[in-house]
Every structure is written in C-alpha cells, then in structure tokens.
Amino acid sequence: MASRKKPAAKLDKYFCCPFCNHAGSVDCEIDRKEWFAVVKCFVCKETYSTKAHALTEPIDVYSEWIDECEKANQDVDVRRRRRDSYA
C-alpha cells in the first residue's frame, strides 16, 4: 500500500516588521484586479507598495520589502559619528 502524501505547508500571511520588530504585525494585501500589493505594519504604520502579478504571494511582497530596506541601508555608515562637544 502506498502512504498518503502530506499536505503542503501553508505560507505565512503575517510577518515581523523590520522597523519596530513586532512579530506578526505586518500584513500583506494583494489587489488582483489592479495588480497592486501593499505591505503595512499595524504598530508603526510603515508601508511598502509594489506591482503584483498572477503568481505573487504575500511572502514575495514581504521579501521584496526586506530587500529594498537592505538596499537603502547599504550606503549608511552603521557607526555613529562622535560629536565634538568642545567645538
């Protein structure tokens, strides 16, 4: 006898915000009529929007948002400059 296949795991719909780090506070809405996707955080109100297509899933939009955040922070110097208080 053949064993039954396990059902595929469902993808997440709620994610961790890269700005406020609250778990499960980011929701993704995909408008299939206008082919537009919006990711927004309920806590800090940060949003990201992009174009969508027929195969777009919420994890794809969230990953694109994370990639854009990393791209924006690439040129930023992480170390803070020391202020000269005696100037």
Description of the molecule:
The chain has about 90 residues and is α+β, with helices and mostly antiparallel strands. The chain has a domain of about 60 residues: N-terminal domain of TfIIb, CATH 2.20.25.190. Helices cover about 15% and strands about 20% of the residues. It contains one helix and four strands; from the N terminus they run ββββα. Strands 1-2-3-4 form a four-stranded antiparallel β-sheet, with helices on one face. Strand 3 and strand 4 form a beta hairpin. The protein is elongated and about 75 Å long. The N and C termini lie far apart (about 85 Å).
In short:
The chain has a domain of 58 residues: N-terminal domain of TfIIb (Single Sheet). The chain is 17% helix and 22% strand.
Name some characteristics of this structure.
17% helix, T_Elf1_sf, Transcription elongation factor 1 homolog, alpha+beta, 4-stranded antiparallel beta sheet, zinc, Elf1, N-terminal domain of TfIIb, 87 residues
Give a quick account of the main beta sheet: strands, pairing sense, barrel closure: 4 strands, antiparallel
| End-to-end gap | 83 Å
How much helix is in the residues? 10-25%
* CATH architecture label name of the domain at 14-71: Single Sheet
**What's the arrangement of strands in the largest beta sheet?**
1-2-3-4
Instruction: Point out poorly predicted stretches.
Output: none
Output the CATH topology of the domain at 14-71.
Answer: N-terminal domain of TfIIb
**Which band does the percent of strand residues land in?**
15-25%
Helix and strand succession? EEEEH
Mean pLDDT: 88
How many strand elements? 4
* Separate helix tally: 1
Looking at the structure, what is the overall shape?
elongated
From the alpha-carbon coordinates, what is the Rg to the nearest angstrom?
A: 19 Å
GO molecular function: RNA polymerase II complex binding; zinc ion binding
GO cellular component, one term: transcription elongation factor complex
Protein name: Transcription elongation factor 1 homolog
Organism: Lolium multiflorum
